[in-house]
Inverse folding.
């Protein structure tokens, strides 16, 4: 106890050790950041690299968007109502994912499980609508092989859909871990990463429905 | 006592000690966070609805619509970042914002660079009819 107080006094009144290391700012003297902050930052870097990967797919799509090779165009294929419903489902699932984080902070299991169930069902609804749209397009002969535009479309939208599918699987695993292990620190960290992932998917969808469906459907 | 004395000047963030806050404090915090999510959801719904309306209406000047849609999309991504991912301009967020800025730079280079190069190649391509003439000579 006394040792701790002596150390505090030293760090407060004696600048010499800090000056020697050249670290005089407030944050660096506090030692390494808490693990929670480091994990979230690392996952944030992963999400940004994922967004960079999507930007390459967006660039590809933008280059080939008009190359329909005499096949169907976006305006002929896209159903604005379907896209609007998909957008609403994903947005509300992002919101209920936020509610899930709040329930986690409050350590409230019932609220957590209901928010997780709502998030899962809304995400699943999104995926079902997207798969129905893909199946309908393929039934019309608008397959990825038909034109460069359709190759770009299925790659970009399919990659987002695959991310949503992985997210749903991750959510199931997290619910099982909370049920099995409880509010353990590692579980809390994973839940934090999951909610970052889910919100990031919604950000990508905003760019996607604007560029592919709204601009391409005109 | 010595423990709190030690921690206070170090400026360790509040979230490092989640379990010993008073129940009242944590409840107020939760309500404030809930409010942030609700405001974010309301703004996102507003922006999305405007986007879908702008894309389908015939009231607007057609060549201006894509620019308007781009602005609305960027605004909505900003809303998601601030209200859902809690990326703010606060001093505790400097690293996150710098990483985001770098990510945005790379995204811009990849997208704008690809479009620029491909448009240039397309413009410099020999038209198909001329290619046929070339073969006949």
């Amino acid at each position: 106890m006394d040792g701790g107080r002596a150390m505090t006094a030293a760090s407060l009144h004696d600048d010499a050790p800090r000056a020697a290391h050249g670290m005089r700012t407030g944050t660096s003297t506090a030692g390494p950041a808490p693990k929670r902050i480091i994990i979230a930052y690392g996952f944030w870097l992963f999400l940004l690299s994922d967004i960079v990967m999507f930007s390459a797919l967006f660039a590809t799509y933008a280059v080939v968007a008009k190359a329909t090779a005499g096949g169907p165009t976006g305006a002929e294929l896209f159903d604005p109502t379907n896209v609007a419903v998909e957008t609403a489902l994903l947005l509300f699932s992002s919101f209920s994912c936020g509610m899930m984080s709040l329930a986690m902070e409050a350590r409230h299991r019932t609220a957590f499980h209901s928010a997780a169930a709502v998030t899962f069902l809304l995400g699943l609804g999104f995926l079902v609508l997207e798969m129905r749209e893909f199946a309908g397009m393929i039934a019309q002969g608008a397959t990825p092989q038909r034109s460069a535009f359709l190759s770009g479309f299925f790659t970009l939208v399919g990659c987002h859909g695959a991310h949503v599918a992985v997210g749903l699987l991750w959510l199931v695993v997290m619910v099982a871990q909370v049920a099995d292990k409880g509010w353990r620190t590692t579980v809390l960290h994973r839940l934090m990463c999951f909610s970052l992932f889910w919100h990031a998917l919604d950000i990508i969808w905003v760019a996607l429905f604007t560029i592919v469906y709204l601009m391409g459907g005109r | 006592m010595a423990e709190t004395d030690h921690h206070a000047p170090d400026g360790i963030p509040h979230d490092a000690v989640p379990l010993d806050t008073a129940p009242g404090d944590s409840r107020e915090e939760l309500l404030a966070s809930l409010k942030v999510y609700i405001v974010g959801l309301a703004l996102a719904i507003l922006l999305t609805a405007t986007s879908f309306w702008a894309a389908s209406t015939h009231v607007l000047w057609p060549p201006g619509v894509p620019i308007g849609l781009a602005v609305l999309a960027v605004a909505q991504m900003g809303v998601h970042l601030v209200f859902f991912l809690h990326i703010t301009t606060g001093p505790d967020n400097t690293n996150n914002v710098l990483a985001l800025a770098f990510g945005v730079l790379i995204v811009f280079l990849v997208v704008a660079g690809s479009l620029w190069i491909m448009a240039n190649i397309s413009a410099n391509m020999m038209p198909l009819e001329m290619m046929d003439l070339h073969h006949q000579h």
